[in-house]
Specification:
With 193 residues, the chain is of the alpha/beta class. Helix content is 40%, strand content 22%. The chain has seven helices and seven strands. The chain is globular, with a radius of gyration of 16 Å. The termini are close together. Bound molecules: glycinamide ribonucleotide.
């Protein structure tokens, strides 16, 4: 069984899609959701889904406690689904080529520190872009800079607000993210049933 761990900071809609998706597969499953914000929506979702939850803070991330927990849980693949902290270099080294991030824009544009959620959509609209989308990429020790895996595009429409653009982006994420994570599982660990 390929053991997938998720890190999330927010509402957790993508984390939930991943849990649902892999619950239908015989050879991979989400075994842990880690969260750095006790009040985040993903906490309730983890409870409702019956997935073990690991709450931590920035200090535990920097001290290596999060890395030890993930290794102790024998996580094979770490998926960032709306996780807003930088992944420390030691954690990147401990999971070489095995951490995946989801970003709500077409990197390399509109990435980097502070570029998350509505900040990204506001910046895309302020720049007058006619299209946006999502980027799924491997994680290195810099924000949003690791090797790209896949991108999916959608239009920015006249009359859009950051909220309506966010909805379109979320729809893309919910459709494609679980599928791409499954492709990576297959690439790294062989076909799953
Ligand atoms: C998603 O849109 C994801 O792309 C974004 O946070 C949202 C989380 O939504 N990630 C980033 O901005 C990372 N820089 P969710 O909590 O409903 O899955």
């Amino acid at each position: 069984m390929v053991r997938i761990g998720i890190l999330a900071s927010g509402n957790g809609s993508n984390a939930q899609r991943l849990v649902d998706h892999f619950s239908r597969h015989a050879k991979a499953e989400v075994v842990l959701i880690g969260c750095d914000r006790p009040g985040a929506g993903v906490v309730q979702r983890a409870w409702d889904l019956g997935v073990p939850l690991f709450l931590f803070n920035g200090g535990q991330m920097r001290s290596g406690a999060v890395q030890r927990e993930l290794q102790g849980q024998r996580i094979d693949l770490l998926v960032l689904a709306g996780f807003l902290r930088l992944i420390p270099a030691d954690l990147v080294k401990a999971f070489p080529g095995r951490i995946i991030n989801l970003h709500p824009a077409l990197l390399p544009k509109f990435g980097g520190k502070g570029m998350f959620g509505q900040h990204v959509h506001r910046a895309v609209m302020a720049a007058g872009e006619q299209e946006s989308g999502i980027t799924i990429h491997f994680v290195d020790e810099h924000y949003d800079e690791g090797e790209p895996i896949a991108q999916f595009r959608c239009p920015v429409l006249p009359g859009d607000t950051p909220g309506t653009l966010a909805e379109r982006i979320h729809a893309l994420e919910h459709t494609y993210f679980p599928q791409v994570v499954e492709e990576i599982v297959t690439r790294l660990f062989g076909p799953i049933g």
